[in-house]
Amino acid sequence: MEKIVLPPALRTGGMPVMEAFAARRSSRDFDTSRSLDLQTLSNLLWAAWGINRTKGRTAPSSHNRQEIDLYVFLSSGVYRYNQIDHSLEMLFEEDMRAATGTQPFVGRAPVEIALISNTSKITGKTPQGVIESTYADTGFICQNIYIFCASEGLGTVARALVPKEELAAKLCLAPDQIITLVQTVGYPAARD
Question: Among residues 36, 37, 57, which one has the least CA distance to residue 48?
Fold first, then answer.
């Protein structure tokens, strides 16, 4: 399968964090004529859930289980983000962006990111504890995406309104993999 080796993420620059917090918002109207260049996509994925130190990530996870996988939906196909070598591993050579949701804007932005929890990595917890851990960890990654997008002038919206069973079947997910949410990313449409 095809692999996209991402350029090294730029770990400096961007908007000051307090300004990024002030600019953070959800966007549902995207410029369909603009895609993200490979460097911006690289920076986005690293900021979301990349490796920033030995055995550490840019977002925390309960007991450092690192159970969340990022499935990246582009016009060229569906990929899984591999943090170890900072690459995208192709899973499906098909544009499935529209399959990630039901709202009118879904599939129009250049990137959809599904956060998928591998619950088999969460041991020693009650079923309720597994759910609490995976949704907390999803929230950390989701917020990293929001702050990165605010800093870079991108639009994003996190969505729980996802046809999860249908999408899981299309992705051939195992029973212990659950789609927690999908986040749409792109350039916001120009406003009049």
Answer: 57
Mean pLDDT score, 38-65? 92
Report which residue type is found at 122. Answer: I
13: tokens are: 């620059």
3 state SS of 134: helix
- 3-class DSSP assignment, residue 69: strand
Reported as a single tens digit per residue, the pLDDT across 21-39 is 999 999 999 999 999 999 9
Residue type, 123: T
Residues 6 or more apart in contact with residue 104 via CB below 8 angstroms: none
Walk me through the domains of the chain, giving residue ranges and CATH numbers.
3-7+14-186 (3.40.109.10)
Contact 38, 44 (CB under 8 A): no
Q: Which segments of the chain does DSSP mark as H helices, in order?
A: 17-23, 38-49, 127-152, 164-171
pTM beyond 0.90: the answer is: yes
Q: Give pLDDT, residue 176.
A: 96
Q: Do the Cβ atoms of 72 and 45 come closer than 8 Å?
A: yes
